[in-house]
Write a structure and sequence with these properties.
alpha+beta, 3 domains, Serine Threonine Protein Phosphatase 5, Tetratricopeptide repeat, 404 residues, 16 helices, Apoptosis, Tumor Necrosis Factor Receptor Associated Protein 2, Chain A, six-stranded antiparallel sheet, Potassium Channel Kv1.1, Chain A, BPM_C, elongated, five-stranded antiparallel sheet, disordered C terminus
Length: 404
């Protein structure tokens, strides 16, 4: 046998293989109707099932109503399983079962499978070779048993053909690199090769590819290939988006990754970086880039500060970013943060653009205050307050009592 090398031991080439012995199993149910009419055929005379296939060979069940042996004088019924196709030294295990038709489950089982360790599988030398029992069951007992019902007898036969196969371990040493599709598309965007659309953003221009943009953005898809779109346009003027933000959005469209804003704009302060992500979130919402919007939302959640939380909250309200909005509300509601946030220009912007959020902020402050203050919990349990009263705080930190 050719050796397959899988390493070296002491300077010698080592190969391994494994022989696996197993059985290919199959079953056949054989029913004899009119059993009483089969009697009297004479010893050695049989009835046979249809042939059935197991392990690449044909098999059949042979039933002898008056027994196979002349000397038994028809006292027993005989049952055998025979190899019904050509074969030499076919090794197999067998099981013969006569079904109890009373429903009690007391089947008569003769199983070679359970005795396989004693003598091993049975070898059938040629077509017509048999395995079974000459004295399978005494006939008089069978005729009065639960195995016979309505003059019908049912038998199950299971054959397990023994197969031997060789397993040789395979050693795979092919190193498959990770996908570089995103990097390749980023290089395509950078080079401008094959571009068919130019975006004018303030005093900067960006080349891109309509089909890639349309595949990633439903807005671009409608703009280029929709019912009222224009597939022949070759230049678009973009308003209300800063060039670095639009560039970052294009990089995401081509790479499916959130761009590194520090890499795009050089060294940035935390505040400036947050503002960049805020604008990128707005652009993502504008062009229907849901994954980019969620990436920006997660990034803003990680970098909330007292200086930026108010503008981030206003952004979350305007673009229906529910999770980001809740994080901002809870951050501001903490007493240690509330005063500092109220001193920022962003809070004035929040009051002007999203006045409805202030009511939600009051409710959040009340909940946070009640959850964190032992004094508040003690007051809420005081029966003098009544069941419908609750404490809250105004934006200057004064405690108010409100009716619910």
């Amino acid at each position: 046998m050719e050796k397959v090398s899988h390493g070296e031991r002491g300077g010698l080439s080592v190969s391994r293989s494994k022989s696996v012995c197993e059985t290919v199993n199959g079953s056949h149910q054989y029913t004899i109707t009119g059993f009483s009419l089969a009697k009297g055929m004479g010893p050695g005379k049989y009835m046979s099932s249809d042939t059935f296939s197991v392990g690449g060979y044909q098999w059949a069940i042979y039933f002898y109503p008056d027994g196979k042996n002349l000397e038994d004088n028809s006292l027993y019924v005989s049952v055998f399983i025979a190899l019904a196709s050509e074969g030499t030294d076919v090794r197999a295990l067998f099981e013969l079962t006569m079904l109890d038709q009373s429903g009690k489950g007391r089947h008569k089982v003769h199983s070679h499978f359970e005795r396989a360790l004693e003598g091993g599988p049975y070898t059938l030398k040629y077509r017509g070779s048999m395995w079974g029992y000459k004295r399978f069951y005494r006939r008089t007992a069978l005729e009065t048993s639960d195995y016979l019902k309505d003059d019908c007898l049912i038998m199950n036969c299971t054959v397990g053909v023994v197969r031997n196969r060789i397993e040789t371990p395979m050693q795979l040493s092919i190193n498959v690199p990770s996908s570089d599709l995103g990097q390749c598309l980023k290089e395509l965007l950078k080079s401008g090769i094959g571009s068919d659309i130019i975006f004018q953003v303030d005093d900067e221009t960006f080349q891109a590819h309509k089909q890639i943009l349309a595949a990633r953005s439903p807005v671009f898809n409608a703009q280029f290939f929709g019912l009222i779109g224009n597939p022949n346009m070759d230049r678009i003027v973009v308003e209300d988006v800063e060039p670095p933000v639009f560039k970052a959005m294009l990089i995401f469209i081509y790479s499916d990754e959130l761009p590194d804003v520090h890499e795009l704009m050089g060294s940035l302060s935390m505040c400036t970086s947050t503002i960049m992500i805020q604008h990128l979130l707005a652009a993502a919402d504008r062009y229907g880039l849901e994954r980019l919007r969620l990436l920006c939302e997660a990034k803003l959640c990680e970098g909330i500060t007292a200086d930026t939380v108010a503008t981030t909250l206003a952004l979350a309200e305007q673009h229906q970013c529910i999770q980001l909005k809740n994080v901002c509300l809870k951050f501001i509601a903490v007493r240690e943060n509330l005063g500092a946030v109220m001193q920022t220009e962003g809070f004035n912007y929040l009051e002007t653009t999203c006045p409805s959020v202030l009511a939600e902020l009051l409710e959040t402050v009340a909940v946070v205050d009640d959850d964190s203050s032992p004094v508040s919990r003690k007051r809420s349990s005081n029966s003098n307050l009544g069941p419908n009263s609750m404490d809250s705080v105004d934006l200057n930190g004064r405690r108010l009592r409100r009716r619910t």
